[in-house]
User: What shape does this take?
Amino acid sequence: MDEPSPVQKLRERMALAVGENAVFDGWTKAAIESTAARLDVNPAQARLAFPKNRTGMIDAYIEAVDRTMEERLSPKKLQGVKIREKIRALIWTRLQIMAPAREAIRRAMAILAMPQNVPLAMRIGWRTADLMWRLAGDTSTDYNHYTKRMTLGAVYTSTLLVWLDDDSEGWSETSAFLDRRIENVMQFERWKAGWRAQERFSVSRFLGRLRYPPR
Assistant: This one.
């Protein structure tokens, strides 16, 4: 992997703080300037390093959340943990990382929901789901690769919406909701595994009958 440029390094350094300042300043140039002052960064360099439009700022912030999640929960740290617990830990860790910017996340989701921004929102969602599955140890390359990421993306997005309005202690409502959604996913995965096994058996039996027709 290529070494990040000085501009990229500065953007990565600033990104989470920009999200936190967006709580007060919105996803605007003011959030970048506030971050520059907070981190003692030259304002001109900060403006050069960070995207100027709202969607670019949001994308850079979410990339920083992805990166921080990976630092906290690498595949090595998750080794030996059950798959459902891995997924739960990854989603919960993301919520903890984003907690200081929760109101800015609400605004970000509204911005990404605008029709012109939906393609970007889908790319961001796929990138995050793909990273979580890779950290969880998934190596699938068949249709499972896609269904797993689509399912996890739906679970994560719905959990995020519950979390944004959760004022319960320790986010207990979000926790319970997440557990229910993960159980739904596990049931779906078990159903897929059973369906695939049945399909393999049926195909084998069918081919055998073609070769050796009953007398």
Summary: The chain has one domain: 53-211. The two ends are 63 Å apart (CA to CA). The mean pLDDT is 89.
